TrEMBL record, chain A:
<dbReference type="InterPro" id="IPR001179">
    <property type="entry name" value="PPIase_FKBP_dom"/>
</dbReference>
<dbReference type="InterPro" id="IPR046357">
    <property type="entry name" value="PPIase_dom_sf"/>
</dbReference>
<dbReference type="InterPro" id="IPR026895">
    <property type="entry name" value="EMC1"/>
</dbReference>
<keyword id="KW-0732">Signal</keyword>
<keyword id="KW-0812">Transmembrane</keyword>
<dbReference type="Pfam" id="PF00254">
    <property type="entry name" value="FKBP_C"/>
</dbReference>
<dbReference type="Pfam" id="PF07774">
    <property type="entry name" value="EMC1_C"/>
</dbReference>
<dbReference type="InterPro" id="IPR058545">
    <property type="entry name" value="Beta-prop_EMC1_1st"/>
</dbReference>
<comment type="subunit">
    <text>Component of the ER membrane protein complex (EMC).</text>
</comment>
From TrEMBL, chain B:
<dbReference type="Pfam" id="PF09430">
    <property type="entry name" value="EMC7_beta-sandw"/>
</dbReference>
<feature type="domain" description="ER membrane protein complex subunit 7 beta-sandwich">
    <location>
        <begin position="40"/>
        <end position="114"/>
    </location>
</feature>
<protein>
    <recommendedName>
        <fullName>ER membrane protein complex subunit 7 beta-sandwich domain-containing protein</fullName>
    </recommendedName>
</protein>
<keyword id="KW-0732">Signal</keyword>
<keyword id="KW-0472">Membrane</keyword>
<feature type="transmembrane region" description="Helical">
    <location>
        <begin position="111"/>
        <end position="129"/>
    </location>
</feature>
<dbReference type="InterPro" id="IPR019008">
    <property type="entry name" value="Beta_sandwich_EMC7"/>
</dbReference>
<dbReference type="InterPro" id="IPR039163">
    <property type="entry name" value="EMC7"/>
</dbReference>
<keyword id="KW-0812">Transmembrane</keyword>
Length: 1086, 160
């Protein structure tokens, strides 16, 4: 929804240009809304992220060609439902989507829709092309989607303000999550329809893909692929008023070529290769009004090169260079059209380079000459201030002016600055830039003019939440105040990736864009409701409850007045006790604890998706001891269920200080009710594996084993009690590790305390129990999957239609592993079917025994797999059929197969709970089947319910960023083409070669979870229902009922109707009694 | 494998559809409407993701020996495409249509069944039993009379 489109590998800058595109202006033509009949004042107004139901009559030249009002019922017909923003996806007329914006429930509008917002120049059925149509719309209902769907964009890299002209002001941003978004400046929303007529151009994929976006709705106008031989830093230059053949032109440098591209359609006008000599071009310069384009770069780190090109033809006019023997360090900083500055290779001197008309001159100045107390470590900040640059030192920031003769002059010095913005040109020809300084719980924003370093134009102090950390980036924009002076607004990006707009010392809006990069999710219970409920409240509730159901009944019987409809609406909104902070009976209300890439922990309420608390973890912040911290995973640390109920639940956050598995680890334990950090350990041993153990101590703290890179296992929590439990269970602890690079799968166990210089009783030596070496010439580990630790299995056996019993082989220690031929690791199509094969294994991780092995010839990855109960479902690509395929493997216990005492099983006396040891050579048999599947799959998950009784669904994240809930019954290896009647009765679906995609089974419906990365499922207390949380750049939350209404009533179940029936039955009993009494009397009189 | 590339002009039928175009080979994945996509020689799979429409993946074979020769076919129904115009196979309706209110649905509900059964017992059952047969049966029973709800209720009241 909105004008946001994600694209791959967005690296380059976003620049703003004004494309002359009159046609597009017309497209956003007039939209006339008239006569909004407002009946109810308290009715919800239509806002985005809601679903609407309308009645409409569509007319063309007075002739009704389509209406929803035909059909049954008093109101007539079936109302038409659509989501706000559906028109973006082309499923709803744009005019209708736009036209109901701001309408109230019950309101009526007549919309006159221009063809651009209706059927365009195509025409549909009897409607001719370019027809202006009329829509008579009545808004019947708005259904809010409270958590449902939240949209984020990620950490902002570049921002361009768009505030000229009237209409709504906006800022276009590009982010680290590969998103280009346009935000409304007033509210910070991802805007749907803001009418500004300019376009945005982005450069991505290392300068090889150039795209132009239309601002109002984020649609792509054109895309141009620029070819080249050599990867290089992408550059983009958009001259303000340069025309070649009457087209506006922009210049792109990427992959060693300069391209001149027409802004109107993305056609390449000319291109010129510059990389042949190995010059690293760092800047394209176009002096206004001339017809020469300068490309300036470095060869090696010591030669300064300038190319002059003709803008019209791309012809190389001149090429000159000069050697700087001392060498440069880092990139060039350009202070004007003919001057650049760089540090020399020693980092102690500044070099100013002057180039014009074929002449290059260097001026070297020692930093210590400019700054007396210079001690090294100076960095030139990119700031784009004309004639000057900013030098950042350890403790201060220095402004240096470059004079025409190349001499440098210090013009100002500031204590310290945490972030400096790019220079902003003001209307009077001056340049302004801003600095951010941190204070105690506040930030100070100062705006200075480039010609006056000493005084501040603006100095504003804003209170800032500690949980947001430091300011990482600042972008400024000016506006003209009523007194004609310049005002400034600043967009700041914080350490936790949130985005804020500051204006006049106030935070105008905040966006929690850190949530676009979720690393891991864990669900936590809410506190139990403690205080009692008064009798009066119950009575009141009962009355309200009855009244509500009466109204609902009226609604179903269609005898509700508009007043009643409004009352029902209101009640539905109010009755959502969804947002309470206590547990509910059904277990729908929970907290989702999410860890983001910025190292911030958020608790999201599943009821309405609000942020209950957030915590920027100090252990995951950059510090001297921890240079590159990043969170890895979240684990349930304490989950009080039976005892220790006074304790709050908590989660364990595991992180690392570097990118490799041997870098120091960090641990934090965070209370999930309050969001306070209870305990933290910085820079402990390295963390290679985290093994949650199935034991907990008297405080219900789960025992965890953290294995470091040296093979030592460390026990947590570090308490004597935990140690006691651990030592009792020492012989029963096993884990495995898959070394993908070495192609080895190893099984491990614990031996004894480790021998270290400092004795540590919580540290244990590990021993290798077994290992499986895969032949490196034919197999490479592609994917692994294990069962979720807390999965519950209800039935251990499956009774088939012919009274056979199949015992499921259920073991916590099963591992699914898939290998592909090393050649086929690349993308699809790079190998022939004969060269590639996919081998799947089911391995017992205690003994290392391979229980099942199967080869899929002519298949390759990527492999996605999910393991649940006794089955595995995996997705891969079949090269022979050239289609994606999904397979299922079910594992059954052979040893118990002879045991046919069904009666005992039914009565529960069957000895299924007898201890099973993995060493007793399990005899298993497997069944498997494969099916074609249309789409590629990004991620896979399986639903989980409280007791594991109801059926399961496999959740597939599709390429379109939707979540498809596929019933496990479709993935049943016992499916046959012609099932017998008995099998049909059992519910076996006839076999088809491909899995059906039923659009109604998309859990996301018509929504998209942009950039989908993961799906988490949480059981609720209601056996039928499972909670599903899908995350990517967007977040999506929903309830799924895989077995439909297993233990819940249907949505339209009416209690009032039940009451009515009971009343009617009682009345009938009395009537019959009276009748029979009368009849009896008559008999007697006769 | 030959590093020979073919520029293919893809066009989506729905012009106003902002849609993602995913292509199996990582280097050409992108976002494109009527876009130009560069394919190296080999076999590729194009998937179109557009909310509201179902597109079949398209298999594209770019010949390495025969420059410029491109074959395309839909994988779902194996139809060969003569030009690379991607058309949706069908529209997708993500929402189930709410059943309109009907008296039958009321009757089918558990409560409706209860009332219906009672009505049958009350009004139809007496008519099914022949009046004369009933009389004979009553006579056979002698003076005990017909056990009726009235008697039962009256009896119950008396014991109270």
């Amino acid at each position: 929804m909105g004008c946001r489109c994600s694209s791959s590998y967005l690296e380059g800058p976003v620049q703003n240009t004004s494309l002359q595109n009159e046609g597009r202006r017309a497209l956003m033509g007039c939209l006339l809304a008239a006569a909004a009949g407002i009946f109810f004042c308290e009715a919800a107004t239509a806002v985005s992220t809601s679903r609407r139901a309308v009645h409409y009559v569509a007319k063309w030249k007075g002739i009704t060609f389509m209406t929803s009002r035909q059909g049954l019922g008093v109101g007539g017909g079936t109302p038409y439902g659509f989501d706000v923003g559906d028109s973006e996806r082309g499923t709803v007329l744009k005019g209708l989507d736009l036209g109901v914006e701001g309408m109230r429930v019950g309101g009526q509008r007549l919309l006159i829709v221009p063809p651009e917002l209706a059927y365009g120049n195509k025409g549909v059925q009897e409607i001719p092309p370019n027809a202006t149509i009329e829509l008579d719309v009545e808004l019947l209902a708005i259904k809010q989607n409270p958590f449902g769907h939240q949209q984020y964009i990620g950490k902002v890299k570049h921002a361009v303000f768009h505030t000229q002209k009237a209409a709504r002001k906006r800022v276009v941003v590009s982010t680290e999550e590969n998103v280009v978004a346009s935000l409304d400046l007033r509210h910070g929303e991802i805007c749907g329809y803001c009418h500004i007529f300019a376009d945005v151009i982005t450069l991505s994929s290392g300068g090889s893909v150039l795209r132009a976006w239309n601002l109002p709705d984020g649609q792509m106008v054109w895309e141009s692929t620029l070819l080249g031989s050599k990867a290089s830093k992408p550059l983009l230059l958009i001259p303000t008023n340069l025309k070649v053949n009457r087209d506006n032109v922009l210049f792109v440098y990427g992959n060693g070529f300069i391209h001149a591209v027409a802004t109107i359609d993305g056609e390449v006008i000319w291109k010129k290769e510059l990389a042949s000599e190995g010059v690293d071009v760092q800047q394209l310069i176009y002096p206004d009004g001339s017809d020469t384009l300068y490309a300036v770069g470095l060869l090696g780190l010591s030669q300064f090169d300038v190319y002059q090109l003709d803008v019209k033809s791309g012809e190389l006019l001149r090429h000159y260079n000069m050697l700087f023997p001392a060498g440069f360090s880092g990139d060039l900083s350009f202070v004007s059209d003919d001057t650049a500055v760089a540090m020399d290779s020693t980092g102690t001197a500044l070099v100013a380079m002057h180039f014009q008309d074929g002449q290059i001159s260097f001026h070297q100045t020692d930093v210590s000459q400019l700054i007396q107390d210079f001690s090294g470590g100076a960095v030139i900040l990119p700031s784009k201030i004309a004639g000057s640059f900013i030098l950042k030192l350890d403790s201060s920031v220095v402004f240096i002016k470059v004079r025409n003769d190349g001499k440098l002059e210090v013009v100002g010095r500031l204590g310290h600055a945490d972030a400096v913005s790019d220079a902003l040109s003001l209307s009077d020809g001056q340049q302004a830039f801003s600095l951010i300084q941190h204070g105690d719980g506040k930030i100070i924003l100062t705006v200075k003019l480039s010609n006056d370093w000493t005084s501040n134009v603006i100095e504003e102090t804003t209170q800032m939440d500690h949980q947001r950390g430091l300011v990482h980036k600042v972008f400024i924009n000016s506006y003209v105040r009523t007194d004609r002076s310049n005002g400034f607004r600043a967009l700041i990006v914080m350490e936790d990736h949130s985005l804020l707009l500051l204006q006049q010392g106030e935070i105008v809006w905040t966006r929690e864009d850190g949530l676009a990069s979720i690393m891991d999710v864990k669900a936590s219970e809410l506190p139990v409701e403690k205080d009692g409920v008064s009798v009066a409240k119950v009575e009141h509730n009962l009355f309200e409850w009855l009244k509500g159901h009466l109204l609902k009944l009226k609604g179903t019987l269609m005898i509700a007045t508009p007043d009643d409809v409004a009352a029902i609406q209101k009640m539905r909104l109010q009755s959502s006790e969804k947002s309470k902070m206590t547990r509910d009976r059904n277990g729908f209300r929970k907290l989702l604890i999410v860890l983001t890439r910025a190292g911030k922990l958020f608790a999201l309420h599943t009821g309405d998706g609000r942020i209950v608390w957030s915590l920027l973890l100090n252990t995951l912040r950059k510090s001297e001891t921890c240079e590159n911290p990043r969170g890895i995973s979240l684990h349930q640390w304490q989950d009080p269920h039976h005892h220790a109920l006074d304790e709050n639940p908590s989660v364990l956050v595991v992180g690392r200080c570097g990118h490799t598995s041997d870098s120091a680890g960090v641990l934090s334990i965070v209370d999930t009710y309050t969001g306070e950090e209870r305990n933290h350990m910085g820079s402990v041993h390295s963390i290679a594996h985290i093994i949650p153990l199935p034991f907990s101590d008297s405080m219900e703290q789960r025992l965890h084993l953290l294995v470091d890179a040296n093979g030592h296992a460390h026990l947590y929590p570090r308490s004597a009690e935990a140690l006691g439990i651990f030592q009792r269970e020492l012989g029963n602890i096993y884990w495995y590790s898959a070394e993908t690079d070495k192609n080895i799968l190893r099984g491990h166990g614990v031996r004894k305390n480790c021998v270290l210089e400092v004795s540590d009783e919580f540290c244990f030596d590990t021993r290798d129990l077994w290992s499986i070496v895969f032949p490196s010439e034919s197999e490479k580990i592609a994917a692994t999957a294990t069962r979720s630790l807390n999965e519950v299995v209800h039935t251990q056996a499956k009774v088939t239609a012919d009274q056979e019993v199949m015992y499921k082989f259920i073991s916590k220690n099963l591992l699914f592993l898939a290998t592909v031929a090393p050649k086929a690791v690349g993308p699809i199509g790079s190998v022939t079917p004969d060269e590639s094969s996919l081998v799947v294994y089911v391995i017992d991780t205690v003994t290392g025994r391979i229980l099942h092995r199967m080869t899929h010839h002519g298949s390759q990855g990527p492999v996605q797999a999910v393991f649940s109960e006794n089955w595995v479902v995996y997705h891969y690509f079949n090269l022979r059929a050239h289609r994606y395929e999904m397979s299922v493997i079910e594992i059954y216990d052979q040893a118990r197969a002879d045991n046919k005492e069904i009666l005992k099983l039914v009565l529960g006396t069957h000895n299924l709970t007898s201890p099973i040891t993995a060493y007793s050579r399990p005899e298993v048999f497997t069944k498997s089947q494969s099916y074609f599947f249309t789409h590629s799959v990004k991620t896979m998950a399986v639903t989980s319910t409280a007791k594991g009784i109801t059926s399961k669904q496999v959740l597939l994240g599709t390429i379109g960023d939707q979540v498809l809930a596929l019933d496990k019954r479709f993935l049943d290896p016992r499916r046959t083409i012609n099932p017998t009647p008995a099998e049909k009765e059992e519910g076996i679906i006839p076999l088809t070669d491909s899995l059906p995609i039923i659009p109604q089974s998309y859990a996301t419906h018509a929504l998209k979870v942009e950039g989908l990365r993961g799906i988490a499922t949480v059981p609720s207390k209601l056996e039928s229902t499972t909670l599903v949380f899908a995350y990517g750049v967007d977040l999506f939350f929903t309830h799924l009922a895989p077995s439909r209404t297993y233990d819940s009533l249907t949505e339209d179940f009416s209690y009032a109707l039940l009451l009515l029936t009971i009343v009617a039955l009682v009345a009938a009993i009395f009537v019959t009694w009276v009748w029979s009494e009368k009849k009896d009397l008559q008999e007697k009189w006769r | 494998m030959a590093t020979y590339y073919v520029l293919i002009y893809l066009s989506l039928v729905l012009l106003l559809l902002p849609s993602a175009l995913g292509i199996s080979n990582g280097n050409v994945e992108g976002y494109s409407i009527n876009g130009k996509v560069r394919f190296p020689a080999g076999t590729h799979l194009i998937e179109v993701a557009a909310i509201g429409y179902f597109f079949s993946p398209v298999r594209v074979d770019v010949s390495a020996r025969n420059p410029g020769k491109v074959q395309a076919a839909l994988t779902e129904n194996r139809r060969v495409l003569t030009e690379l115009v991607l058309e949706p196979l069908r529209e997708e309706q993500y929402y189930e249509i709410r059943e309109p209110f009907s008296p039958m649905s009321l009757l089918k509900s558990p409560m409706g069944l209860m009332i219906g059964f009672m009505a049958i017992v009350m009004f139809l059952m007496p008519k099914l039993v022949d009046a004369e047969e009933l009389k004979r049966a009553q006579e056979e029973m002698g003076n005990q009379g017909v056990p009726s709800i009235a008697n039962f209720l009256a009896g119950a009241q008396r014991t109270n």
